[in-house]
TrEMBL record:
Source domain of life: Bacteria
All residue ranges annotated as the Fe-S hydro-lyase tartrate dehydratase beta-type catalytic domain in the record: 3-168
Family: Belongs to the class-I fumarase family.
InterPro entries to which the protein is assigned, alphabetical: Fe-S_hydro-lyase_TtdB-typ_cat (IPR004647), Fe-S_hydroAse_TtdB_cat_sf (IPR036660)
Gene3D superfamilies noted in UniProt: Fe-S hydro-lyase, tartrate dehydratase beta-type, catalytic domain (3.20.130.10)
Keywords: Lyase
Species assigned in the record: Hungatella hominis
Protein name from the UniProt record: Fumarate hydratase C-terminal domain-containing protein
One Pfam entry name: Fumerase_C
Length: 169
């Protein structure tokens, strides 16, 4: 049975998620990948993340671009993406969505910051039916790799890393 998660995700909800849990995510999530994540991390490092107009605390970050064809996960272990997971988690992101195995150091960083990583099936058509709103948030010059906010209804995912453990081990 899937666990229903609503955004923003509380500290208590994040603690309760375990490796292997199937979740259904409802609410607003952020989307970004290779081009935009380093820019968001830079804003965090400069204490300017409030200029995004979106609260990172309790948020979900989906490793994807937003295009007319829809959204689908990209590999989370790309350098620009995986290196953003720790600073985003420190800034309050509770759930990172993507695909693929992440490194043990990243899993440890998730644990330290009470955040989790979930894999989402690469099924663009399914996700399109579960996306009810799409808004460009920042960095429009990056086109489909800009920072977007989506409103989603019951996005399916599987918790792949939580509390220092991973399904890949």
């Amino acid at each position: 049975m899937a666990i229903e998660i609503n955004t923003p995700i509380s500290e208590v909800a994040a603690v309760s998620l375990q490796v292997g849990d199937t979740v259904l995510i409802t609410g607003y999530i952020l989307c970004g990948r290779d081009a935009v994540l380093p820019k968001v991390v830079r804003l965090i490092e400069e204490s300017k993340s409030n200029t995004l107009g979106y609260e990172l605390k309790g948020s979900v970050f989906f490793h994807t671009a937003v295009s007319p064809a829809g959204v689908g996960p990209t590999s989370s272990n790309k350098l620009e993406i995986e290196s953003s997971i720790e600073p985003l988690s420190k800034a309050g992101v509770k759930l990172h969505l993507g695909k693929g195995q992440i490194h043990k150091e990243t899993i440890k960083a998730l644990n330290i910051n009470n955040a989790v990583y979930a894999v989402i099936p690469p099924v663009t058509a399914l996700l399109g039916d579960k996306t009810t709103e799409q808004t460009l948030i920042a960095f429009p010059e990056l086109g489909m790799e800009a920072l977007y906010r989506l409103k989603v209804n019951r996005y399916p995912a599987i918790i792949a890393a939580a509390h220092g453990r991973s399904i890949y081990e």
